[in-house]
Amino acid sequence: MQPDGTVLCLEAVTKRFGGLVVLDGIDLAVGRSELVGLIGPNGAGKSTLFNVITAIYAPTRGKVLFGGRDITGAQPHHICRFGIARTFQLVRTFLTMTAFENVMVGAVYGGGGRVRHAAEAAEQALELVGLAAKRNVTTAHMTLSDRRLLEIARAVASSPALLLLDEPMAGLNPTEIRQMVEVIRRTRSEKGISILWVEHKVDAIMKVCSRVVVLDHGVKIADGTPAEIVANRKVIEAYLGEPAA
Ligand SMILES: Nc1ncnc2c1ncn2[C@@H]1O[C@H](COP(=O)(O)OP(=O)(O)OP(=O)(O)O)[C@@H](O)[C@H]1O
């Protein structure tokens, strides 16, 4: 963490694919235990931003600082060790493993291979997301909602300082969405983990996040409190596709 409490800091991050500018000079900071929503219309560049933070893509220009350290161009497999964990839009759990075994993968990896400590971290993470009673259920037999919670548990078990959530509510019903909101809140408040959360369910983001960042066509068009965001002219235009009246 930097002395001012910043955990993640992007400086003028640009990403091009050939002639296509997908991210254009993005500055973004996430503080300790902060829960920041990242929204924007389809194709705005949200997933690409996650891929740059997790070193799947190297930025064309700009820097990614994590805990004050320049991690631009790091190896993707080092990212978890640095303390960044991620969940995916298309859930990626190990289907033949039980819930506990899935979470152990995160715990062992994040804990540097110490198995006893990892088992404890895995149990705590399952408890946090409300899946302790399903610890021995094979993932293939779990609902989408439980698998999404399991991905969060696996990420939390790796003891990250920063968690990137990529549309954790996609495909969930209203009851499951409420449950997910509680889990995200608890992950921040009980574990103190900073969270950057990409979501299309904008109303959930507005209710839960203290700060919201908006991307449109690769440009950061707004960064503020939910109240500021809903009143922002550029944001309204981006979502409605025409100038606001
Ligand atoms: N590997 C790639 N090569 C070329 N173009 C890409 C690549 N990855 C993403 N893009 C393009 O970059 C733009 C932003 O895509 P991205 O998936 O980051 O947007 P998004 O905001 O996550 O969208 P959605 O909300 O639909 O998931 C799109 O125009 C997409 O086609």
From TrEMBL:
InterPro entries: AAA+_ATPase (IPR003593), ABC_AA/LPS_Transport (IPR051120), ABC_transporter-like_ATP-bd (IPR003439), BCA_ABC_TP_C (IPR032823), P-loop_NTPase (IPR027417)
Database matches in Gene3D superfamilies: P-loop containing nucleotide triphosphate hydrolases
GO terms classed as biological process: D-alanine transmembrane transport; L-alanine transport; L-isoleucine import across plasma membrane; L-valine import across plasma membrane
GO molecular function: ATP binding; ATP hydrolysis activity; L-isoleucine transmembrane transporter activity; L-phenylalanine transmembrane transporter activity; L-valine transmembrane transporter activity
Keyword ATP-binding in annotation: yes
Pfam families referenced in this protein's UniProt entry, alphabetically: ABC_tran, BCA_ABC_TP_C
Keyword Membrane: no
Keyword annotations from UniProtKB, A to Z: ATP-binding, Nucleotide-binding, Transport
CC per GO annotation: plasma membrane
Domain ABC transporter: 8-242
Protein name per Swiss-Prot or TrEMBL: ABC transporter ATP-binding protein
